[in-house]
TrEMBL record:
It is found in: Nucleus. The keyword Transcription regulation applies. It is an enzyme of class 2 (transferase). It catalyses: L-lysyl-[protein] + acetyl-CoA = N(6)-acetyl-L-lysyl-[protein] + CoA + H(+). It comes from Aegilops tauschii subsp. strangulata (Goatgrass). Its EC number is 2.3.1.48. This is histone acetyltransferase.
Amino acid sequence: MYCFPCGARIRRNGPYYAYDTRDTHHSVCIPCYNKSRGHTIEVEGQMFPKARFQKKRNDEETEECWVNCERCNCWQHQICALFNDINYDVKQAYTCLYCYIEEVKRGLHVPSPQSAVLGASDLPRTALSDHIEERLFKRLKLERQARAVQSGRSFDEVAGADGLVVRVVSSVDKKVGVKPRFLETFQEDNYPTEFPYKSKAVLLFQKIDGVEVCLFGMYVQEFGAECAFPNQRRVYLSYLDSVKYLRPGIKAATGEALCTFVYHEILIGYLEYCKQRGFTSCYIWARPPLEGDNIFYCNPTIQTTRTSDKLREWCLAMIRKATKEEIVVELTNLYDHFFITTGECKAKVTASRLPYFDGDYWPGVAEDMVNQLHQEEDDQKLQKKGNAKKIIRKRALEAAGHTDLSGNASEDDMLMQKLGETIYPMEEDFIMVHLQYSCSNCRSFMSSGKRWACHQCRSFYICDKCYSAEQELEERERHPSNSRETHELHPVTS
């Protein structure tokens, strides 16, 4: 359950305010209810009287439906029975699978042919699903061959993961709106009020014992070339989830579980597809989902929830494979790329450069921080005691690339300093994958054209614009900085 005004998750057993109509349900968290001034609350652009909201507790249990077989009178879980009550004819009694099989044996029913039952392979195909499937099947064939060689058996004698289907089951246009306080901070910079993106859901199915089972799912947000900076040509991997049902449940030739091999190949295939389409980077927040935030409703008892460290290592193992194939050209994290300026980086450290994704960690935290900064400025008592809270630590500002340390820092500088302090302890969880090379000077991505590389320095590349500016400098000011010698830069065509 989520708060409509701020989007925050209302925790289980936590209090909240609700207003129900015939068609809608509006839930508001306690902080938003208390902060609303006057006698009304704004929800999705409409004003509602506060008096109509009732205080409730998020402790309602949703009971799953059961069905009763009118032959043997046994009860079965509706989902397990694959019973769809929407298409159910009330004139016909429900018959469980076991009774139905007995009636087929006695000639009372003629079962429908398999071709009459639509499966996962009948779902619409897309260019993305075809790309992932083609790669996955090719890699699985090579893995099976390697396993056969290791065991000294023929290809047909070793088990393989058969009946797999990848489909994009949802692809819709959405927009993520920028929160009001953050937008107010950068209104002079013409910061966008919203960012359009394509929301996609990719699922993996396997036919197990005649039933199509969904094993793996991922939700992605694709911000295309038409999207404004800083979200332009970026991808956000918002959700990953799986259930441990893939067959066969064996180890791959690489030593990892075969299901891990399959899921990694799906992700690498997606990154490869994004790279070919011109996307520049992909962002992964390696955090185990909160209860209720999973794609799948529940997991089998044999499957344990990954810790943050294990989930991060699982993602990094996938990225290392993609790096070997040169799909990924660089691995970093949100903090190192946007909050720190070292060496010859001339990019401005500002919150306006951070990619603004729907449901990501930092936008909500930043909004709270801006609210806090405004409250501190409005608090007369704190102002009388001095400006201690407004003074930014010198070391933090120097690390962030600010040279003018006199007086109070700007609101942007203060926000970045506070945000950096919050993100830094968990910086490794905010994974940033470069699909295109990034300029070491201005940090812009070079998706096409020419880039200039230094053969003496590891991972030093600059764009055409920065190279032209470099040539206008005196020789002692050129790359590498703070060095007596000058390195030659060589052109590389993307």
